[in-house]
Amino acid sequence: xxSEGSEGVExxxxxxxxxxxxxxxxxxxxxxxxxxxxxxxxGLIGPREVDRLWDRHVLNSAVLGEHIPQGRRxxxxxxxxxxxxxxxxxxxxxxxxVLLEPMARRVEWLTEVADTLGLPVTVERGRAEEKVxxxxxxxxxxxxxxxxxxxxxxxxxxxPLVRPSGTLLALKGQSAAEEIERDRSAVRRAxxxxxxxxxxxxxxxxxxxxxxxxxxxxxxxxGVARKRGRKKH
Length: 233
Known about the structure:
The protein is α/β, with parallel strands linked by helices. It is built from eight helices and seven strands. The longest helix has 17 residues, at 25-41.
């Protein structure tokens, strides 16, 4: 495993990273190195993003853990290059995390990253809206999503994966309030409660992460959340 100062990491390690990752900082630094090299080569990260990998992507994702209790099962929908699931898994090894991604090349990347970093996550290929996928991966205490879809569609896709009284945490930008106003009714129809805006990383990040939190208030088809083994597919 490379150290935080290893080759390939184009961005200096910010002080906030030391606060967020603590003893796991070398693993986070290696992830940044992989993104800056292989992630760019494979088209998962744009070259212009390399200088802001820490602030805009990795730390932005990791601080989501502030709103996830210890030992919970988490499904990260549309993990893509690994956000927010990989940084969250690095910062919070107590969590049981499933990375759900529909594209084969991204699934391959996520699996390679998990193996390289030694992360106990499960990588699954599929779409959250597919019934066969929902049946296969079951429900979780928390479902996360970043840059996947507008709030209405996200609620329709993701809330069925949330156990009753569990939470959907959607990473959003400055338009979060407008999305809530526009999609509140659709969220309720999908089985969600009142969407609430939360800030993560306040006092640590220069720009805190904006998250829309939605509680699952209606139980869907009968199903029991199962604790699955932490394996990679």
